[in-house]
Amino acid sequence: MKIALTAFTRRGAVLAERLKALLAEEGQVCVLDYPGRLAEELSLPDGYERVGLWAGDRFADQDALIFVGAAGIAVRAIAPYVKDKFTDPAVLSLDEAGRFVVPLLSGHVGGANDLARHVAEVLGATPVVSTATDVNGLFAVDEWAVKHGLAITDRSLAKAVSAALLEGKRVGFASDLPLDCPEGLYEGKADLGVWVTCRAGGGPFPETLRLVPKCLALGIGCRRGTSEAAIRAAVEDVLQGWDLAAVKQVGTIDLKQDEPGLLAFCASLGVPLVPYTAEELQKAKGVFTSSEFVKGVPGVDNVCERAAVLSGGRLTVPKQAGNGVTVAVAMLPGF
Fold it and tell me: What is the pLDDT of residues 268-290, one digit of tens each?
């Protein structure tokens, strides 16, 4: 986890330095910055000019921000940058005496609640967690999904699950994976339920929130200049019955690693584009659909199938071609 810390007083700086050292010992990647005034007092290199600007920069490149000082300062600093609970970093406020740790933003999905509990534990402080499911000791679907590497497919239904639990209603659970039913949910009939699956479509409950594991790797080849829309259409044709959210990564040959349409498609899914050299692709294990035309261009007889299985998965859908795009699908280990 990449964590940025800041403090506004000498006393706060001592605590921030201590916390940074403790987190770094655990393998966290930590940076600690101070406002220019305090940096000068501490005989440190130049600090930042305004905490709001610092917060904006850190929102873009960190998983968590920890403010050692008044919570109001933190709130004002992050306010212009708050967008979405599913993408905002975790934000904590810690008083300079080290007594209370308050998660301010992204308590569940961003991990602020868990981080606050951990920081409180290592400092001997008290975590102040205010999210309703935590206060009432209930199952938090967004937090559970993050811990199990599952994508939430419908935010409205995720809210409905939390609301139903808070109202004492029955919420069902079903899973295509060997996962135990979370405490507070029920296996069996329910009007609203959670389904862990790679599949698209409906579900076992009248209202079904699908939580999708990252179980697929794609291999994609394309003509130069192929649009994002064309690549998406080709992938959707191949993934009939599976959810796009199940894609963990996309592999291709290194000659295509800068292809704008392919990069845009991966960015839209929030997954990495993994390039392989022709030599790496040629070493992939398995029986693949050979193409002399393809071999004559990049020097390997098949790009998409080989790129898919180099993820470590097994080839599930062999090469499918159309409109200048080739797609293959591998199922990752454990699924």
Answer: 999 999 999 999 999 998 888 87
